[in-house]
Amino acid sequence: MLFLLIAGVLIVIAFLLILPPLWRKQTVQNADLDQHNIVIAQQRMAELKENRRAGGISQAQYEEQLADLEQALSDDLDIKSHVSTTQGQGRWVVYVLVLGIPLLAGSLYLTLGNYQAISHSAEMAVDPDALKLAEINKMVGGLAEKMKNKPDDAQGWLMLGRSYKVLEQYSKAADAFDHAYRLLGDQVEVMLLYADALAYANEKNLAGKPTELVFKALAKEPDNMTALWLGGMAKAQQGDAATAIKLWKKLAALLPPGSDSQQEIQGLLAKIESESPQAKAQPEATQQTKVSDVAISVQVSLSPELQKSTSPGDTVFVYAQALSGPKMPLAIVRKQVSDLPLTATLNDAMAMMPNMKLSNFTNVKLLARISKSGNAISQPGDLIGVIDQVALTDKGEHKIVINGSVK
User: Fold this and answer.
1) Beta-bridge mates of residue 399
2) Per-residue DSSP letters for 124-182?
3) For residue 53, is it within any domain?
4) How many separate domains does the chain show?
5) What residues have CB less than 8 Å from 80, skipping those under 6 apart?
6) Which is higher by pLDDT, 368 or 100?
7) In a domain? residue 266
């Protein structure tokens, strides 16, 4: 109804602008012109009479000029009268416009229009957030396609990685940052972006490549706040509370005094400091006994048919996982293909986090994986061997043969 009301008002305004000039009569204007021509003729006749009386022209000339004057006046009056009649007859256009425009507009709207397009129900049917997300995904997809044709555009890969990170597509973000890292080398910003994306893609686990990148960045910029935060997190996950506290105290000193970030770090420091004395309170011999109690011996070899698919410098990860829940390694060892076949011992000292270690579980899953990229995150194409379930009470040596690939 509101739409129809607005449309009607606009049509009326248009008629008010167009119709008055068409409707207005010209009779007054034409009468003024006729009177003006008559006055001019009278003045001209008086001049002729005065000229004849003064002897300036003969009687024959006087009669001839008088006849011309009368003819000219007659022609002028006849032309104006004709114009008035024609203009009066043009008023039929007014009726055509008044009736034709609304009928034509209405018929076109009924044929081509959709009144529901402006209804509230149609507005509510569109989810603005979903529409925005779809547009972002489309733009990021377009950028990804563009980068296939520009593999050497480092800044483009960085932009793509940041875009994927915003969309929380962390594996794709890590791949994009990997391209940028290969092109730009050990730039601090790139290394930290790459490490952060790798960690998020592996359920916030910084073990392996992310930790390596973070401490490379710290070596270059010891006061980099992002590197200090990630370095402290990596050490906390490894159970090295002392180093984590050292890094986070330095970070807290660099943050604006009283800021939310500084308060968060101080709260985290208070928590980890309150927990660390308990660990120190345990006698060292007891700790060593506990570690040996949960040790798992693993022997790893590579299937002969896959040896040609690897290089001596490729990374080998040997680790244990919980049978269910988070995939974060409970203990992990990093080696190279050149070390194969190898024997490794997994224990609580290799845990990523204090509450995620072997001694907290009865049964675990053992894995050995070869990664060409060195990423702790499992990627398609990695070579892998698995023992689906091992009891921690089994003190035998567990043999893993790397004979498959990650799909």
Assistant:
1) 299
2) HTS-HHHHHHHHHHHHHHHHHHHHHS-TT-HHHHHHHHHHHHHTT-HHHHHHHHHHHHH
3) yes
4) 3
5) 30, 33, 34, 37
6) 368
7) no
In the block, tokens 């006698």 appear at 283
State whether the Cα torsion 273-278-280-281 is positive or negative.
positive
Residue appearing with tokens 């990596």 = 234
**For 293-346, what is each residue's pLDDT tens digit?**
678 999 999 999 999 999 999 999 999 998 877 777 888 888 999 999 999 999
Q: Which three-class secondary structure state does DSSP give residue 347?
A: coil
CATH of the domain at 224: 1.25.40.10
> Two tokens at 290?
């506990």
Please check whether residue 250 lies inside any domain of the structure.
Answer: no
Give whole-number Cα distances, 193 to 119, 187, 273, 310, 328, in Å.
Answer: 46, 10, 29, 28, 20
Q: Is residue 264 part of a domain?
A: no
| Domain identity same for 69 and 142 | no
Do 26 and 92 fall within a single domain? yes
Structure tokens at 397: 């040596």
**Domain limits for position 227:** 129-242
**Residue 206 and residue 153 in one domain:** yes
Instruction: Write the pLDDT tens digit of every residue in 274-294.
Output: 776 544 444 444 444 344 467
**174 closest CA partner among 154, 187, 190:** 190
